[in-house]
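Request: Show me your protein:
***
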Amino acid sequence: MTRTLPLFALLGTLAASGALAQEPSKEGSKEPAKAPETYEAPIKNAKGDAIGTLTIRDGANALVLRVAIQPGGLPPGWHGMHFHAVGDCSDAKFQNSKAHVNHDQSKHGLLNPEGPDEGDLPNLYAAQDGSAQAEVSSETPLNGEGGLKDGDGSALIIHANPDDHTSQPIGGAGDRVACGVIK
């Protein structure tokens, strides 16, 4: 003999057990995703001529840095690239940009077991015509505590030589040949 429960009794049993209860949608309670902030600035050589642009898109977990150097902008080959602590490219050797962004005093180098510091970035390759295109990510924030756009800003510095990503203090990257202000 088969026994059937009336539909309302079955629904009442399921509701009491929580099987029909619905939690508020997590998707519906989230704030809409904020579009990444975009920052753009010229990259200049030691003569003060614009040789390219830097574009930064700042997301929730990382920023994406895009570097575009026009033909003739850099000597062909690999170049170290770093975030420096002060947004000042006013002197021809770009020394006013100070040392790397490095709030926690880590050692230099993406391959250093005691690093990297917050200013460390991958090398940039310039083609035979001196142009370069790169897009890299960094966990260093654009805004907020420890951000690139702090009180005195920061700078993107491109060096004459490649960075070996281990030796101190700047991986043998040599002279500063290009600079872009981040403020």
Observations:
- Residues 37-182 form a domain with the Immunoglobulin-like fold (CATH 2.60.40.200).
- The longest strand covers residues 37-45.
- The CA atoms of residues 161 and 180 lie 18 Å apart.
- DSSP finds two helices and nine strands in the chain.
